[in-house]
Amino acid sequence: MRTPLFRPLTLGLLAALALPVAGCARNSAKGDLPYVARDVGTLYSAAKQRLDQGRYKEAAALFDEVERQHPYSVWARRAQLMGAFSYYLNSDYTQAIQGAQRFLSVHPGNRDAPYAYYLVAMSYYEQISDVSRDQKITQQAQDALGELMRRYPNTRYAADARLKLDLVRDHLAGKEMEVGRFYERRRQWLAATLRFRRVIDQYQTTTHTPEALMRLTETYLALGVRDEARKAAAVLGANYPGTDWYQRAYNLMGEYPATPIAPLAPGETVVPPPPRPQVEVLEPLPEGASAKPAAPAPSPPTPTTTGGDNPAGATGATGGTPAPGLPPA
Description:
Layout: H1 2-30, H2 40-52, H3 56-69, H4 74-89, H5 93-106, H6 113-125, H7 136-151, H8 156-185, H9 189-202, H10 209-223, H11 226-239, H12 244-255
Helix pairs in contact: 2-3, 2-4, 3-4, 4-5, 5-6, 6-7, 6-8, 7-8, 8-9, 9-10, 10-11, 10-12, 11-12
């Protein structure tokens, strides 16, 4: 008699115990740690040990646990930055940027703030792709490196940021050259000129400047603007005289010489163009007046005669009334 009652209770208890186990399994699948109260020293030491062993994902989770369990301790501030660093080493750059920015929002004047800015910049820098793809990340890396140099110019992080910034600017210039060459292959000369001009104006210290000047010479010649092509070739020769790009620009200018104006033949004179017709400017109408078409002027008709010559004052065939339009005799 007890067996039928005991069995449902047992099954119900097992199902109830399975729920926390399933919840723990889901947390483990997500990478979240179950909440186990531990002192700050134990948590931080375990996180640092995982970091030294190269288990960066586990280290980041333990550093986050330090901040969660002991948010007001001295170690929580350090753990917040170390967690962002662990995410960076694990190539989880989005989490690294968010962690470093959260640290800066809570502790903007901390002595480790320069490193937090550096961590943000490096997280963008590591995501830079080749020039055939969109360069939004590259622009964000340039902005982050510039922000670090502006705020902390005398730190060792700023010194490294200057070197990285040169590489980032060279990458952005390479993207402009890639797009400019694409337009040039499609014979869209004006669009290509604008891209090459941007390299000269904004990235003139990069390695792409000599080619940009040569390409400008090509596109200006294609557009028929020979003076601008000569200026671009002259700048190329003055700054990069020994490069192949200058030799190509020099050859281009020789292949497309300026067409001189043919001299006049002996005795030939220049015929001036006809004068422009004078256009009558009408005066404005008085207030309240309306524009009416003017009556056409009567033209003198040919008089009808019955024979012989009819002088200017002769009358018509029907009587002595002068012809319309002629003065009376």
